[in-house]
Amino acid sequence: MEAEFVRWLRDHVPRHPRQRIGLGDDAALIGCSQNANVVVTTDLLTDGVDYHIATDDPRRIGRKALAANLSDIAAMAARPVAAFVSIAFPRQPTAAGTPLELAIALYEGLLPLAAEYDVAIAGGDTNSYDGPLVISVTLLGEVTDRGPLTRCGGKPSDWLLVTGSLGGTILGHSFDFTPRIREALMLHERYELHAGMDLSDGLALDCSRLAAESSCGALIFTDQVPVAKAAHELAAREVVLNNEHATALRHALGDGEDFELLLAAPPDAAAAMLRDQPLECGITHVGELISDSGLWQQTETGQRQPLEPIGWLH
Amino acid sequence: MEAEFVRWLRDHVPRHPRQRIGLGDDAALIGCSQNANVVVTTDLLTDGVDYHIATDDPRRIGRKALAANLSDIAAMAARPVAAFVSIAFPRQPTAAGTPLELAIALYEGLLPLAAEYDVAIAGGDTNSYDGPLVISVTLLGEVTDRGPLTRCGGKPSDWLLVTGSLGGTILGHSFDFTPRIREALMLHERYELHAGMDLSDGLALDCSRLAAESSCGALIFTDQVPVAKAAHELAAREVVLNNEHATALRHALGDGEDFELLLAAPPDAAAAMLRDQPLECGITHVGELISDSGLWQQTETGQRQPLEPIGWLH
């Protein structure tokens, strides 16, 4: 089916001006800006872990494969440029139909997102085999004049901010999230940011990672964490020992795939962002970097206690 | 096992000067030369198609995953720079041991090749799932001052040349081949080349592809095709209707994974290459591009007949 699919791709994947050589050669040639650094990220998504081919719409799966990579480029406050999409297709029909129907549906989800973020689909590899659907996307981007935003620039007393709201992603957000490219570029342009990452494995765990890369600890103000409606919904459904509020907070701290931004900024810049609220999705002050190592929480009553770095451990 | 494997990687994967940001951030930052074009290729290898985890040494599998990508960069006469290695690991133990043992063995095959070609292992993604081993490698490279070598620059009357010898790759060459990076760079530097590609799906099929991309046809001098010793060995083993010689030739024309270079060059430059024989692996005149479309063969007796574009069809 590969040959048939490649023909479909040639008809449906638009040629992007950055592609100096089109599909059909041994490799792609991508035009870069004068800035001599290329940002590269790659995500591998597998059936049963990142999606379930038996129940999830393949258009949403295809969209997610690109969106997860866009989120990593956003984490660097970089601009996406060109994606390479490799797919291992099950030889047998799936809930999404024949292998070719599945392939086309994946692209029907992926292409509109590529167009929205002006990303060239510049190459890839397609194979059929006796195994579950595996999608590997590699995304190239370029940094702006402000340079890349990394995890390691945070300093003690920096404020920790997050975009959007967190938790309960399994109810739909893990597929339908907006990669925060525009938000990251705009904040990086307008405000001083010290460090940043995207939240893929849970606020608590990812906070501890950003803090560690910045040689700091992190303190989370648990009562200020923006808990998503979906986290409350999930908590209300669950049979819990704890109360609903605590369970929803636990989802906000520990659920993976929020794909929101976690930023560390000096207090002045952070206060300006909170005052300006320049993002439609909102931006919230959830904690600060501290010189003591480890992850800590500060509750409403002002007490400081260790916080377990809960989250999605691969 | 991912966390444990990532620790192993941090200890064993050397930091390359091209990596402006190391492993541990959301994306890699790769320093590029002033030339504002990046060459990108990607290959996805699956169990049962490109290797058999039950019988093949995982070190050879890991080596092959990188080598196949290096061969694509060689096809563009470009220099490899940085590789991104994503792997979907079976959760259950395989013939190669535990998932962690398998992961380490793959890298033990891949790292020496990366070192030999000065390639940074600059990132990737690792996931465990209920499925067979899938390896996706994306390789970035950069073109030289001579620009990229593509499939589309060939002209009628160009001579077709191949490096090395062809066929019988299943006996070992499909794992142990030398990606022709050095050879491609040297030839591109010293001689005028019009078009090139690497032979991955068989000389006949790949010739027809290069010819089609160059808006030409191709004529193969079947008696001049350099038949590998392994193709003869394979032919001798097989029960055939045809004679051994014809069967060996068929392997040389149709077997995939030669990973040799197919080049189109103007007659003067081609004759100079054949006279100079600048490559240890040898270079052979196997045909020419013609203005008639399609694939043709010319036999010892000088007759011209259509040639079936046999090869590895995905």
Global outline of chain A:
globular
Q: Give Rg of chain A in angstroms.
A: 20 Å
SS field, number of helical segments of chain A: 9
N-to-C series of helices and strands of chain A: HEEEHEHEEEHHEHEHHEHEEE
Structural class of chain A: alpha+beta
What is this entry, summarized?
Two copies of one chain form a homodimer. With 314 residues, chain A is of the alpha+beta class.
Could you characterize the architecture of this molecule?
The structure is a homodimer of 314-residue chains. Chain A has 314 residues and is α+β, with helices and mostly antiparallel strands. In chain A, 32% of the residues lie in helices and 27% in strands. The first copy, chain A, is built from nine helices and 13 strands. Chain A has helices at 2-12, 58-75, 99-116, 173-176, 181-190, 203-213, 229-237, 244-254, 267-276, and strands at 19-21, 28-31, 37-46, 78-90, 120-129, 134-143, 159-163, 195-198, 217-221, 261-265, 283-290, 294-298, 304-306. In chain A, strand 4, helix 3 (99-116) and strand 5 (120-129) form a beta-alpha-beta unit. The longest helix of chain A has 18 residues, at 58-75. In chain A, 56% of the residues are buried.
